[in-house]
Amino acid sequence: MSDADQPTETDGEFNPAAPNTGEEFEPVDVFPDSDDFDLRPGSDSCYKCSTCDTNCPVAEVDDEFPGPKFQGPEQWRLKQRDDEHEIDDSVMDCSNCMRCDNACPAGVPLSQMHNTARGEYVSEQMDTWSIEYWRNRILSNYRTSAWLASKLPRLANVVMNFGPARWVMEKTMGVTKEREFPAFATETFREWWARQGGADASRQRARANRERRGEPVDADKKVAYFHGCYSNYNTTEVGKAMVRVFEQFGYEVVVPKQKCSGTPMFANGMLDDARRHAEVNVSSMRDLVDQGYDAIASCTSCSMALRQEYPELFDIPGIDDVAANTFESLEYLRIHEDLRGELAEVEVDGELAEEFAYHAPCHARNQGLERQALELFRDVDGVGIEDVGESCSGISGTYGWKAEKYEKSMEIGEEMFEHMAEAEGETGMTECPTCAMQMEHGTGYDIRHPLELLEAALVDGDGL
Amino acid sequence: MASAPHIAVIGGGSTGIGIARDLSMRGLDVTLVEQGNLTHGTTGRMHGLLHSGGRYAVADQASATECIEENRVLREIASHCVEMTGGLFVKRPEDTEEYFQEKLAGCAECGIPAEVVSREQARAVEPHLAKDIDKAITVPDGAIDPFRLVVANAASAMEHGARIETHTTVTDLLVEEGEVVGIEVEHDSGSGKRVHGTEGGREEIRADYVVNATGAWAGRIGEMADVDIEVRPSKGVMTIMNVRQVDTVINRCRPKGDADIIVPHETTAILGTTDEEVEDPAEYPEEQWEVDLMIDELKELVPMLEEARTIRSFWGVRPLYEPPDVGSDDPTDITRDYFLLDHETRDDLPGMTSIVGGKFTTYRMMGEEISDHVCNQFGIDADCRTADVPLPGSEDFSLLRDYMDEFGLRSPIGRRSVERLGSRAEEVLKTTDPNPVVCNCEGVTRAEIQDAIEQSGSDLNAVRIRTRASMGNCQGGFCCHRMANELHGEYDEAVARQAWDELLAERWKGQRHALWGEQLSQAMLNYALHATTQNRDNDPADGEPVDFAAFDAGSTPAQSSGESGVAADGGTEHGD
Do A78 and B404 touch (CB under 8 A)? Predict the structure, then answer.
C-alpha cells in the first residue's frame, strides 16, 4: 500500500472519532466463547499526542496514576497474548469516566482497552479473597443491594446512614463514611408502573394524546424504557417524569424486564457480572427493537453502556441492533419532536421555576449530549440554566465511594463545586444519578433531572 | 607460548563479533574494528528470525541441519536475546500438497521437530490467520534480537580482554613481504567509546593474523591486497508493523519466493522479504514496490495486515557467496552456506582469511570454525567454549518478579526491561535515583539509557540498539530529545546536539517508506513538535556552542523608582 493507492473511505462518511482499528480487526468474535481479547491492533491509531492524558481527571489529581495513554495503547502494545504478560494494577485507579474516548483525536478505542484490561486484571490477577475485590463487587452490584433495601426502604434509609454502622463499613470494607447513602423510595418505579396499569394503560393514554395532538391515532410511536437501577429504587420521580413526558408526546411506553446496565461493573472489572446482566437486557430489548421499539434511557451512563460498551465488550446475539436503537430520553425527543417549539409556548411556575446550575456528565459528553439541556431550557420562561463547566464531577459511579479514592474524588469535583457556588441558582441539574449525588454532596443543592423540568413545563396534569 | 598471537578481526556484525568472542575465550589477543555501530551492516538489517531450519529443509538440507543445531545452542547461551515463539508453515489452498509433504519430510530428515496442524488448530494459536488456509506445519522457529546478541557477544569478548573499536574504518591492509601483517584504520572519534566531536586519527594495528568478516563488504577489503572475493550482495526489504499481529513466526509453505514470512519481534512484527542482487552493498535503490509487495502478499496469510499500521521499512544486503564455478543466475539459488577463504592457499597471500556467506542463526558455528582455523595457524590447541558459556545477560534469570516492588516499575515496563536486560536487570534497574520512563512506546527507563550510554559513549544510535528506545510507534517523536538530554553531565551541549541530530536523521530514514495512514499522521505530528518546540528545522544555536557568558545579566533596577527590585513579571528579583 503506497501513496498511490491509499484506502478510500468506503462508506463516504467522515467519522474521525470512530475507533480505527482496521476492517479485519475483530477482537471480539474471533472465538465467540473466549474472553481472551487481543486489543493490540487498537494501538495502531495512537500517535502519542497525550491529549487523553491532559483530559484525564484522575491523572490530574493522582500523581501515581499513569494516565489513559499508558493504560490503553501503550500497555496493550507492550502486552502479549500469553499468560505471563500481566496488566498493571494501576488500571484499577481509572474511574471509567471515558473522557479519554472523547478527547482522542485519532479514534483510539481507549475505554474498550481499559475495560478489557481491567476485566483481565480482575479475573486473572486480583485476589478474589481480598477485601478490595469484595468491596468492589458489592459496590458494582448496587442493584442487588438496592433490591434488598427496597424491601424495607425506611429501615434501610436509617441503617445505611447510621454513623457507627458507616464507621464499621469504612474500616472493614473501605466504603467511605463521608457520603450519605441515597434514600430508597418507599415504592419502586416498577411497582408504581404496575399500579398504573403498565403497557396496556400506556397505550390508551398515548393514543388519547395523539388524538389530542392531531396525530394519527395509529402512529408508530413506541419506546421501551430502560430505567436503570437508580430511577427504579431511588429517584422514582425521574422514571415517572419519563413516562409522563413521553406519553404526552403520544409515545406508548413499555418497561421491559431489565437488570443493571453494567456501568459500575465495567468500572470495577467485573465483566462476568456485567455480561450476565447484559444478556438479560439485550435479550429483552432485542425483541422489542425487532417490533419497532426504540430503547430509551434516562441515565446517560445506562445509554452509554447499551450503545458503546456492550458491542465493544460482548458478543451477544442482537447486541448491535440494540446499540443502534438506543437513545437518551431528551436526545430522542429532540430528534423526533419539536421540543423547543413547544417550550417556547409555556412558562414554568411552581416548584421548578428555578435557576439551574447544570452539569453535563462525562458519559453524556461521549454521546454528544453535553449541550442538550442548556439548548433546550435556556429560553424557557420562568427558568434559567447555566453550565457549570466541562469538568468531571469526580464521583464516577463507584469511584468516589471508595474510601481511598474519596479525597481524590472531591478534588476532581472542586472545580464543579466552585462553579455551582458561583452560578445564580441553587438547584442543580444533571442526567446522571451519581453526578447528582456528588453535586448534592459538594454543595447541598437539590439536584433535578431534565425530564423533571420537561414534565413541569409540558405535562398538563391530566395524565398520570 | 610466550605471548598470545594478536588477531585483527574486521567487521562488527554477528560473524565478526562471534569470532572475537570465540578467539578471546580461547586466550588469543583480539582487536575488532567496525566502520559504524556494532551491527551497522547486514546484522542490524535482518528480520530477527531464529531459524529452526524449516525454511531450508527442502532445498538446502545442510543449512537446515546447521540451523536446528544452532537454534538449540542459542536458546541456551543467549536466552535473553531469544523468544521461542514457535513457527508455522502455512499452506493456502493454492499452495501444492506436494511441497507441503516435501517440507514435512525434509524437516524429519534434518531432525527438525515438525507436526501437522489443522486450520482450526492453527487459528486457535494465531486467531488472525486467514480463515481459508488449509493447514500448517509447526516448527521451533523463534525470534532473536540481533542487536542484543551482538552487544552481548562484544561484552563477553571484552571481558576476555578483546579490544572493540566501533566507528573505525579500515583504510588499508598492511602487507609486508607478501604477507598480511595488520590493518590501517581511521578512527572517527579517537579510540574507545565514540564521542562526537572528538578528534579521530589514523592507527596502524599490527596483527599476527587478520580475519575479514565484513560480509557484503568483503570484496572491498580483498581489493586492498589485490585479492578477488566475489561476494554477490543481494538486497531484501523488511517492513515493520506497529504491533504484533501474530505471536508465532508465520511462513508461507511454498517454494522460495518473495514476501513469505512474518516474524514477531519484540513489540512489532516484521514482514519479509525480497531477494535481488545489487552492485554496491552501500548504495542501492530502496523501492516502494518492494514494500507494497510485502503487504499485498502477506495479507493472504494475515488479512488484517492490509489495514494495519506500518512504522518503517528497511533493507539489508545478504553477503551471498558461491564458488566461482557454480554460476547461479538468480540470487535465490545461491546457497546460504558459508565459506572460509584462506588467502594463503587460495591467493598465495598468507596472514589473512575471509569468511563469507552464511546466516545469522549459524554465526556462532561460523565463529567456531574460523577460530579453529586461526588457532591451527599458530598450533594452538584450545577448545571452543562459546556453545557452553552463556552470554552476559543470559545467565540464570527469571522474568517472573514483582516489578513494582523490586524496581519501582509498572508491570509491562518492568517486564520489557527485564526481558531486554536478562540477568543484568538488577545491576541496571536497581537504583535509588528517580527512574522515569524515557521511551514510552518501548518502556525504556532512564536507568537503562544511562547504562547504554556508559557502554557506548555519546552515540545515541548505539543507545537505541541496546535499549530499543525510539524504536516504537512514534519512532522517536517523543523521546529523541529526552535521550539526548540523558547525555547531559557526561557530555557537553555540542556533543549532545550532534548525537541528537544523528539519531533523528536515522529515525527519519526508515519512516520515509511508511508515509501513509497513521504513520503519516505520526510523522506530521513529530515534525510539528520538533520544529516548533525544539527548533529542529533550523536551530540558530546549532554550530558553535552557545556563549552563555555573552548574555548580559539584565537591566539594573532604576534606583530612583519606588518600585525598585520588581521584576517584569511582577515578582521580586529573588522570585515571588
Answer: no
**Could you tell me the sign of the dihedral formed by the alpha carbons of A341, A346, A350, A353, in that order?**
positive
Q: How far apart are the C-alpha atoms of B487 and B479, rounded to whole Å?
A: 13
Q: How far is CA B325 from CA B16, B321, B322, B330, B405, in A?
A: 27, 11, 8, 15, 63
Q: Is B205 helix (H, G, I), strand (E, B) or coil?
A: strand
Interface test with B, best of A78, A83, A108 (most B CBs within 10 A): A78
Cis ω for the linkage preceding B273 (within 30 of 0): yes
Residue type, B93: P
Instruction: Write out chain B residues lying below 8 Å of A78, CB-based.
Output: 267, 412-413, 415-416, 442-443
Residue A393: half-sphere exposure toward Cβ, Cα within 13 Å: 33
Q: How high is the pLDDT of residue A338? A: 95
Kindly indicate the confidence band of residue B573, based on its pLDDT and cuts at 50, 70 and 90.
Answer: very low
Please give the full DSSP string across A208-251, using - where no structure is assigned: HHHHHHT--TT---EEEEE-HHHHHHT-HHHHHHHHHHHHHTT-
Domain segments of chain B as ranges: 6-41+147-230+336-377, 83-143+234-318, 431-534
- What average pLDDT does this structure show over B57-72? 95
CATH of domain A49-126: 1.10.1060.10
Look at A24 and B413 and tell me if their CB atoms are within 8 Å: no
Check CB contact of A22 with chain B, cutoff 8 Å. yes
CATH of range B83-143+234-318; options 3.40.50.150, 3.40.120.10, 3.30.9.10, 3.50.50.60: 3.30.9.10
Does the beta-carbon distance from A88 to B124 stay under 8 Å? no
- What gap in Å lies between CA A208 and CA B386, rounded to an integer? 92
- The 10s digit of each residue's pLDDT in B107-162 is 999 999 999 999 999 999 999 999 999 999 999 999 999 999 999 999 999 999 99
pTM of the model: 0.90
Binary contact (B473, A47; C-beta < 8 A):
yes
- Per-residue cell: A212: 389530542
**Torsion over CA: B520, B511, B474, A115 (sign):** positive
Q: Which of B244, B304, B474 is closest, CB to CB, to A22? A: B304
ipTM of the complex: 0.91
Distance CA A9, CA B255 (A): 37
Helices (H), B243-341: 288-298
Asked if B474 lies within 8 A of A47 by C-beta distance, the reply is: yes
- Tell me the C-alpha distance between A135 and A150, whole Å: 21
pLDDT (mean) for B79-90: 97
The grid coordinates listed for A24 are 479485519
CATH number of B6-41+147-230+336-377: 3.50.50.60
Inter-chain touch B309–A74, beta carbons under 8 Å: no
Mean pLDDT score of chain B, rounded to an integer?
A: 92
CATH of domain A347-454: 3.40.50
Instruction: Kindly determine whether residue B309 and residue A44, on different chains, have CB atoms separated by under 8 Å.
Output: yes
pLDDT reported for residue B522: 96
Top residue of B84, B85, B411 to mutate, by most chain A CBs within 10 Å, is B411
The 10 Å Cβ neighbour count of residue A5 is 9
- B155-212 residue pLDDT tens: 999 999 999 999 999 999 999 999 999 999 999 988 888 888 888 899 999 999 999 9
